[in-house]
């Protein structure tokens, strides 16, 4: 239960709007308009903290829509603890609904929320998080402004079912696409199979980017312990919303800010938790962005150093078999953290929003169902984090080791002399449209030995970076039983994908990274042990190709379609450093009083 001690009114930043005798002109203006819907003067001047509820749910954002209901319980908690709730909208980001990419809107929602948190009379804020980018967008803004902030996950959907089997969000789409391509199901069957995975309100029920980012928000200490995994429709979710409302008022009283919680130790905790849960390949991008906005050093190499050798404990799709309800019943994030604490793998002193350390919150928490969360001694997979690769094609890219299937290993990683390396000729696609147009065309020349390349899909090339690096093999190979070819690219891939792609390659082709000069037919060699990815052509030839491409004006990419695409392309960084709006990073702790 939250401590509901009263904040010191003298320190509240909202006083500068509502109770500043030295600036009567403006105070009157601020007051009269916030009174016009029924707030009383003595309420606004009572010294009670004004608490924002950053509302990410809407009809356009179905994953987060349940927050419209949960907001009532957040309000109840805020009022109960002595605060005044002010709910306001955040720019919507629906992962499955936004063209060209939802990735483009993470930074837009971030910028909008920074302006709101900075420019309005807010003493603290509840961040309503859920669908993939809503969580990092909100956390990044709270980091920049650095006023007390707590995140509330909307929670996953209930488990999906089809013919007695669990169907998981996203993961079923990749499978259904293969079944459709190979003729095993028709269009109606395809839609029905995909829709079976979405039986209720909430976000993706797999360990996709949404479950990952909300689990990591909890591991970072930014949400109440045990709250990330509660399914959206459960009564516990409403209770958690109420407790979150209580807690934020206490946080304002204690002046507990994001900078007290988001330390390097908490980021390293999150990296380890990400490996243990089989988390999304989007996590390194979003955590890099968050770290930069709060001013913590974090590099892509930290993922290899601190996460790579952690085993996979959580048996959720896409790396395993279960779904969100099962994860919650098995103990959720506290059970995973509790298990990592027993191995000495968590910095227990890291502070969390409730004023206790993560050690105090999770020490001694047991796993409730070992089929769903495995004990450390019996993991699903060893060494399940991300491998970082580099070479003459890019400065860094990552590969998610927990999703390397037995089929993939048998074909590509079974050379007894060199079990960690493979090579093959590449077929290069320039963006998702090119891939969709040619993947099943025999003229593309794809065989069972081909490595598929996706470029033009980074933050500049395909504004926001498209989730397209995981590519299915052509239909004729699928019919022969070949379900996976190695994929590599400068875009992202969905957290719900079980493809062991090499992705987030930085710099991207559009920024003249090495992928820009790769050609279909070149041979590429990957060495997972050495962490290398190289095209097997000479430095001289690479330099010649680069000079020729530069003479043509560089790697071509599509025109801007909107003003924000133009501004984003002019200011965005690469995936390895968070794909942030670079000029934004220097603005830190701007809302502190
Ligand atoms: Fe919104 Fe997956 S599409 S959480
Ligand atoms: Mg996604």
Provide structural commentary.
The chain is of the alpha/beta class. It folds into 3 domains: 252 residues, Rossmann fold (3-Layer(aba) Sandwich), CATH 3.40.50; 39 residues, no CATH class; 165 residues, IlvD/EDD C-terminal domain-like (Glucose Oxidase, domain 1), CATH 3.50.30. Helix content is 37%, strand content 12%. It is built from 22 helices and 14 strands. It has a 5-stranded mixed β-sheet. 56% of the residues are buried. Bound molecules: FE2/S2 (inorganic) cluster (FES) and magnesium ion. Magnesium ion (MG) binds next to loops.
What's this, in brief?
Its EC number is 4.2.1.9. The chain has 593 residues and is α/β, with parallel strands linked by helices.
Q: Tell me the number of helical segments per DSSP (H or I, 4 or more residues long).
A: 22
Low-confidence runs of at least 5 consecutive residues: none
What proportion of the residues is helical, as a percent range?
25-40%
Tell me the count of domains: 3
CATH class of the largest domain: Alpha Beta
Q: What name does CATH use for the topology of the largest domain?
A: Rossmann fold
- The CATH architecture term of the largest domain is 3-Layer(aba) Sandwich
- The pLDDT mean sits at 96
The major sheet is characterized as: 5 strands, mixed
Strand order of the largest sheet: 11-10-9-13-14
Work out the oligomeric state of the chains in this entry: single chain
First CA to last CA: what distance? 28 Å
Would you tell me the structural class of the helices and strands? alpha/beta
Each distinct ligand = FE2/S2 (inorganic) cluster, magnesium ion
Pfam families: ILV_EDD_C, ILVD_EDD_N
Keywords: Iron, Iron-sulfur, Lyase, Metal-binding
Domain Dihydroxy-acid/6-phosphogluconate dehydratase C-terminal: 371-579
EC number: 4.2.1.9
């Amino acid at each position: 239960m939250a401590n509901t001690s009263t904040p010191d009114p003298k320190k509240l930043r909202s006083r500068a709007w509502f109770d500043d005798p030295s600036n009567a002109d403006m105070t009157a203006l601020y007051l009269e308009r916030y009174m016009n819907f029924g707030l009383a003067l003595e309420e606004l001047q009572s010294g009670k903290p004004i608490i924002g509820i950053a509302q990410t749910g809407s009809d356009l954002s179905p994953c987060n829509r349940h927050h419209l209901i949960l907001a009532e319980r957040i309000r109840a908690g805020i009022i109960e603890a002595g605060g005044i709730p002010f709910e306001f909208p955040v720019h919507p980001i629906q992962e499955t609904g936004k063209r060209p990419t939802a990735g483009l809107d993470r930074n837009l929602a971030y910028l909008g929320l920074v302006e709101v948190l900075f420019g309005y009379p807010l003493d603290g804020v509840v961040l309503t998080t859920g669908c993939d980018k809503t969580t990092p967008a909100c956390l990044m803004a709270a980091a920049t402004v650095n006023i007390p902030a707590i995140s509330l996950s909307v929670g996953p959907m209930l488990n999906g079912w089809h013919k007695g089997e669990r169907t998981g969000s996203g993961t079923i789409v990749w499978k259904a696409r293969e079944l459709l391509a190979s003729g095993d199901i028709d269009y109606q069957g395809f839609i029905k199979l995909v829709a079976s995975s979405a039986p209720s309100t909430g976000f993706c029920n797999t360990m996709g980017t949404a479950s990952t980012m909300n689990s990591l928000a909890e591991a970072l200490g930014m949400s109440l312990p045990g709250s990330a995994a509660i399914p959206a429709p459960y009564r516990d979710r409403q209770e958690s919303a109420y407790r979150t409302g209580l807690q934020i008022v206490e946080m304002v009283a204690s002046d507990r800010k994001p900078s007290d919680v988001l330390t390097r130790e908490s980021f390293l905790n999150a990296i380890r938790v990400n490996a243990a849960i089989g988390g999304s390949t989007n996590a390194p991008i979003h955590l890099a962005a968050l770290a930069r906005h709060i001013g913590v050093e974090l590099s892509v190499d930290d993922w290899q150093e601190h996460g790579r050798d952690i085993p996979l404990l959580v048996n959720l799709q896409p790396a395993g078999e279960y779904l969100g309800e099962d994860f919650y019943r098995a103990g959720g994030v506290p059970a995973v953290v509790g298990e990592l604490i027993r191995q000495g793998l968590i910095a227990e002193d890291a502070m969390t929003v409730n004023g206790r350390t993560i050690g105090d919150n999770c020490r001694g928490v047991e796993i409730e169902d070992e089929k769903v969360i495995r004990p450390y001694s019996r993991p699903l997979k060893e060494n399940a984090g991300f491998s970082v690769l580099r070479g003459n094609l890019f400065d860094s890219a990552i590969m998610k080791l927990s999703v390397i299937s037995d089929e993939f290993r048998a074909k590509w990683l079974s050379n007894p002399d060199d079990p960690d390396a493979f090579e093959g000729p590449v077929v290069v696609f320039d963006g998702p449209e090119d891939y969709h147009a040619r993947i099943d065309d025999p003229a593309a020349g794809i065989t069972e030995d081909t490595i598929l390349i996706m470029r033009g899909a980074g933050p500049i090339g395909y504004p926001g970076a498209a989730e397209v690096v995981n590519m299915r093999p052509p239909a004729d190979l699928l019919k022969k039983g070949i379900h996976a070819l190695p994929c590599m690219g400068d875009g992202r891939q969905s957290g719900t994908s079980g493809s062991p792609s090499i992705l987030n390659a930085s710099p991207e082709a559009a920024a003249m990274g090495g992928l820009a000069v790769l050609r279909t037919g070149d041979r590429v060699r990957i060495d997972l042990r050495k962490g290398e990815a190289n095209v097997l052509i000479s430095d001289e030839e690479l330099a010649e190709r680069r000079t020729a491409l530069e003479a043509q004006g560089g790697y071509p990419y599509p025109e801007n379609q909107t003003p924000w695409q133009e501004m984003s392309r002019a200011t965005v960084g690469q995936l390895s450093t968070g794909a942030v709006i670079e000029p934004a990073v220097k603005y830190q702790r701007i809302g502190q009083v």
